[in-house]
Every structure is written in C-alpha cells, then in structure tokens.
C-alpha cells in the first residue's frame, strides 16, 4: 500500500534493518468535507531508543552500514523536496527527534487521490521497488471515504529470505492507521477497525507480521453523515 510504502522508506533510513526491538508505523489522514486534507506519517522507535543510540555509534551491524544522523536527515530532505514538486501536494514538512528516534513527514493534499502515486516515485529514487496495491478515494457527493487494499503476494516470500535476526525485528512491530473527519462516521466496513466515541475518527491497528502474512486486510469504506 502506498502510504505504508513511504513508511517503508522511512524505516529503511532509520535503522530498522539493524534493530531487534519493537517499532511503530503510524499513518494519519485528516479529511475535510470538501475533499482536502492532511497526511502525517510517523516512524516511532522510542521504545528502542537506547539500543538505537548504541547502534548509531557503530560503522556497521550484521552487515548493514549504519547511516549517520546527517545521512538520515539528507534522505528525509530529499523526500520532502520531491513531495513539494508533486501535483496537489503542499505544506510539506519533516521532523526528526534523535533523542527518542522518531521521524515524521506531513503534507496537505487537494484531493485524496493525490497521494496515490507519489510514494512509489519517492521509493524508486531510493531504488526500493514499490507495488500499486492500495488506493484512496473520497466521493464528496455521497461523503464516502474508501481505501482499497490488496495484499502483496510476494511479501511473505521476500520476508522469508531475511536472516533470522532480521525477521525478529518485525515480531512486535505494529502498523496503525487513523482517519479523522469533520462529519460523524455512520459506518465502517472493515470489522477490525474501531470508530471513536466522538464518531469522527476510525482507527485500525495491526501487527506488521499479519500484513506480511496476508492475515489482515486494511481495505475500508467509511460512510459519513450527510
């Protein structure tokens, strides 16, 4: 899925290959009734910050070159520069907290469909192959937000090629999507998702392993009050 693929890019530059502790991938979309909105993507390694700090002092670990803080910042800056040139995208920002090891990219969109193509191109610049297995849409007339997702058939095969210590990184990793709206939610088609008490947000949380193994589908159709 495209936004999660951008998260994969963030994971790549924040040392996931050399860790053996938990991390969080968080995707947030704030939708307005007119179809505009904002996206925030966060990689949170704060629960592993002591280990990450130790790794950052080394040149390499388990055959992986450890990037410097300057290199990590450079990679984020390049992603920001590309996003700023993307159609329908504005207000692009990034932040890095090297005390708690949290990285964030945020931006605004004119239409939710604007985010359907950008991450594949960003990843291609980093020589990371991406697949088009997810898309977002919003029908202003019916006030219906949709996310279509199809599991990547090769994900499990590629995961099984990893070394055992690298596989362990994903055992406690989680992926969370949070969609917020101006109008109340009347229905959410995904049975794993949860609607907030305010009825204006929908959250879905999954383990990264369930996504890799195709045990969970994050597709959803969310109907808003008309």
TrEMBL record:
The organism of origin for this protein: Pedobacter ginsengiterrae
Protein name: Lipoprotein
């Amino acid at each position: 899925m495209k936004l999660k693929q951008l998260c994969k890019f963030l994971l790549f530059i924040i040392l996931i290959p050399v860790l053996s502790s938990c991390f969080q991938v968080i995707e947030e979309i704030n939708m307005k009734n007119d179809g505009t909105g904002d996206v925030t993507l966060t990689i949170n390694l704060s629960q592993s910050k002591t280990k990450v700090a130790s790794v950052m002092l080394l040149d390499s670990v388990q055959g992986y070159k450890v990037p410097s803080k300057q290199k990590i910042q450079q990679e984020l800056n390049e992603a920001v520069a590309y996003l700023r040139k993307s159609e329908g995208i504005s207000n692009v920002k990034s932040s890095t907290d090297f005390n708690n090891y949290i990285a964030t990219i945020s931006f605004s969109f004119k239409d939710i469909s604007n985010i359907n193509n950008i991450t594949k191109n960003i990843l291609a610049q980093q020589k990371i192959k991406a697949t088009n297995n997810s898309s977002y849409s919003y029908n202003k007339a019916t006030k219906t937000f949709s996310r279509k997702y199809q599991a990547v058939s090769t994900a499990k095969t590629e995961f099984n090629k990893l070394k055992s210590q690298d596989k362990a990184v994903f055992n406690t990793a989680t992926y969370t999507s949070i969609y917020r709206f101006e109008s109340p939610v009347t229905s959410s088609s995904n049975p794993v998702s949860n609607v907030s008490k305010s009825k204006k947000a929908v959250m879905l949380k999954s383990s990264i392993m369930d996504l890799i193994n195709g045990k969970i589908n994050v597709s959803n159709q969310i109907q808003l009050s008309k």
